[in-house]
Amino acid sequence: MEKLEYQEGRTELSSFGEFALIDRLTEGFTTHNKSTVKGVGDDCAVLGTGKNKMLVTTNTLVEGVNFDMMYTPLKHLGYKAVAVSLSNIAAMNGIPRQVLVSVAMSNRYSVEAMEEFYAGIRLCCERYDVDLVGGDTSTTRAGLTITVTAVGEVDEDKITYRSGAKLHDLICVSGDLGSAYSGLLVLEREKVTYQANPNFQPDLGGYDYVLERFLKPEPRMDIVKLLKEKNIVPTSMIDVSDGLASELLHICKESQCGCEVYEERLPIDYQTSRVCSEMSQNMLPVSNALNGGSDYELLFTISQSDYEKIKDSEEVHIIGHITEKGSPAVMVTPQNSTIELRAQGWKQE
Amino acid sequence: MEKLEYQEGRTELSSFGEFALIDRLTEGFTTHNKSTVKGVGDDCAVLGTGKNKMLVTTNTLVEGVNFDMMYTPLKHLGYKAVAVSLSNIAAMNGIPRQVLVSVAMSNRYSVEAMEEFYAGIRLCCERYDVDLVGGDTSTTRAGLTITVTAVGEVDEDKITYRSGAKLHDLICVSGDLGSAYSGLLVLEREKVTYQANPNFQPDLGGYDYVLERFLKPEPRMDIVKLLKEKNIVPTSMIDVSDGLASELLHICKESQCGCEVYEERLPIDYQTSRVCSEMSQNMLPVSNALNGGSDYELLFTISQSDYEKIKDSEEVHIIGHITEKGSPAVMVTPQNSTIELRAQGWKQE
User: Fold this and answer.
1) Fewest CB atoms within 10 Å of the CB: A244, A283, B67, B310?
2) Which residue of A has its CA nearest to B141?
3) Domain with B235 in it
4) Do B199 and B119 share a structural domain?
5) Which chain B residues touch A67 with a CB distance below 8 Å?
6) Which chain B residue shows the shortest CA-CA distance from A26?
């Protein structure tokens, strides 16, 4: 029998963050095919030999890690699984066309439960004109794991990588930040109360916006459309899955630059602020915006010459600018002090 | 809190086979994009608007269901996860170009263990000139789940679906059948002995071929190349993942035909026969060939006019022919009796 314990020289997964782990595991892989334009390292792979490129991305959601069945309706979960993958296509300035959905589930789930889940997949596919073209169903000993692969397309001259931000470019973000995480906080609070007293009826009134942000996020295809209408090709772009700080650091690393964002410019919904004040006096909405994640907003940089085209768009907020190579990524507070940004995204549990 | 128990009208997943479940879940999904040539229902989706089409397929392997860590070296597992997806590209007569690998793992796995796994992925990628272009790593509460998406290409006029078999076409299969399942039987036998006595040293000598067939299958890209060299476009094709019987039934269903295969024509390796005779007097090698699965051979049909081109190929065996619509799928025994084929592929545990 193969020995599967690696006691000697064992390095715990928990000692690595997600990105360091991916870097280590994919080190030494090179690409050879002429149809591979961009491999590992951005929101999507870019494939194809013609002018019209194909985008491919894959995302996994794991029960008990990425979602809690206690408060996740299956229809929402199906919707979210697709939405998250479409958001990656949006982050390359592309249009999603197809998805493949792989589901590994235990027999705790009934056929009717799976139908609910697929109803959510279907709703998201219909909303974004995306075709379900394949997938796989497997059994598991326990739990539900979902992997969605999305395929999209983009013209060669519209592809937006993380790596194109230039000195003095403006940093923009769509929608608002921190609300999805605030929704999660509310759900976790109600779960604890419910577990203590199963007769308790959770009161989720007044939190509808933040709950929907967490349970049923939308890929910002409207922003991709807006950019096209305004004739803007962002110099860099990424979607906000791990929190603004983490995503800014990705752009700075890949674009070899620094950045400054202004705390007072960060778009934060009033429900986010309300949840924070309810939870603890020490919980600041700006922390949720920087580190909460799961907002699936688009973070992008544009040339200053594009400022006039976008300054009046309600859904886009200019939050800062790109600084020179070697500068840190910082947030400037209203008191004019600077705080260096650190990634607090995914870490192995 | 959302009620997640569906007691009323609950239908157990176990009451459905994999294919019936997929049919039920994807019922009502329609495709709208002009780049969607073929959606759910074959080995790959076929995408693109040009003459050169893209193939996309996704496969999931779950610990404790699709593999047992007790006897699966992680390097082999990485290799197999990729190989299985490439086999689906081969089954459409295509050439694989890229893969995306999503891994969800518990912290039972060390970084070194994951490196072993990725070494296997890399070996398979290098062997088949495929680029790793993306993926995802997630945590799980327990176990390892792997989803591989493969992307390939094929000329429009070479695409081979399951649905093109015609009356009197010859049924061909590559390599041999039942050996992978025989390898699994050996591993399971040794596991039981080992569990009874952990000091026992498993003796796997003399089983090397069947073990490799199970642990490290190869996608039959050589057959795709051979067909091209011989200027043959099969009328239908599928890879043997669930067993010959199940795959023949897929072809018959999609092509609206029946078939006859001859028991004495089924290619069976002597190690397969040896394992069967060791296991039980009642275990017939032909059952492993029909129902064992995991061989990842190619099963295809060709026009009779292509017979001369392929009859001398050592790696291709002509095992029967297509019969008319409405006829059953049968195996003819050496005694000239016919046995109707039934699918014994995947069933929810």
Assistant:
1) A283
2) A64
3) 170-340
4) no
5) none
6) B118
Has residue A197 got a pLDDT over 60? yes
Report how far apart the first and last C-alpha atoms of chain A are (Å, whole number). 30
pLDDT band at A21 (very low <50, low <70, confident <90, very high): confident
Contacts for A282 with CB less than 8 Å, ≥ 6 apart: none
How many CB atoms lie under 10 A from the CB of residue B133? 31
* Mutate: best of B49, B149, B346, partner A, most A CBs <10 A: B149
Does residue B129 fall inside a structural domain?
yes
Q: What is the CATH number of the domain that holds A247?
A: 3.90.650.10
Please state whether the predicted TM-score (pTM) of the whole model is above 0.90. yes
Same domain, A114 and A200: no
Sign of the Cα torsion B210, B211, B217, B218 reads negative
How far apart, in Å, do the first and last CA atoms of chain B sit? 29
A234 in a structural domain: yes
Chain centre to alpha carbon of residue A210? 16
The answer to whether the Cβ–Cβ distance between A44 and B134 falls below 8 Å is: yes
All residues of chain A having their beta carbon less than 8 Å from the beta carbon of residue B9 are 112
Where a domain ends, among B158, B178, B213? Answer: B158
Weakly modelled stretches of chain B, pLDDT under 70: 1-8, 344-349
- Residue A285: the pLDDT is 94
Flag if A118 and B26 touch (Cβ within 8 Å).
Answer: yes
Instruction: Note whether A213 and A290 are same-domain residues.
Output: yes
Mutate to test the interface with A, among B5, B25, B115 (most CBs of A within 10 A): B25
Query: Please, are residues A99 and B39 in contact by the beta-carbon 8 Å criterion?
Result: no
Per-residue pLDDT tens for A156-191?
A: 999 999 999 999 999 999 999 999 999 999 999 999
Q: Is residue B285 included in any domain, yes or no?
A: yes
How many other CB atoms sit within 10 Å of the CB of residue A313? 16
Q: Label each residue of A129-186 as H, E or C.
A: CCEEEEEEEEECCCCEEEEEEEEEEEEHHHCCCCCCCCCCCEEEEECCCCHHHHHHHH
Q: How confident is the model at residue A7 (pLDDT cuts 50, 70, 90)?
A: low
Q: Do B132 and A26 touch (CB under 8 A)?
A: yes
Nearest to B269 by CA among B156, B157, B181: B181
Give yes or no: residues B104 and B80 share one domain: yes
Q: Among A111, A132, A346, A348, which would you mutate to test the B interface (most chain B Cβ atoms within 10 Å of its Cβ)?
A: A111
Give the phi and the psi of residue A11 in degrees, each rounded to 5: -110, 125
With beta carbons under 8 A apart, name residues in chain B contacting A35: 97-98, 153
Residue in chain B lying closest to A113 (CA):
B6
| Shared domain check, B193 and B152 | no
Chain A residues touching residue B60 (CB < 8 angstroms): 102, 104, 136, 138, 145, 147
Q: Does the residue A250 lie in any domain?
A: yes
Residues A198 and A129 in one domain: no
CATH code where residue A154 lies = 3.30.1330.10
CB contact under 8 A, A149 and B98: no
ipTM comes to: 0.93
The candidate with the shortest Cα–Cα distance to A204, out of A218, A222, A223, A191, is: A191
A328/A265 Cα distance (integer angstroms): 19
Domains of chain B: total: 2
Q: Do B145 and B60 share a structural domain? A: yes
Size of interface A-B (CB pairs under 8 A): 298
> Please, are residues B60 and B67 in contact by the beta-carbon 8 Å criterion?
no
Question: Do B265 and B213 share a structural domain?
Answer: yes
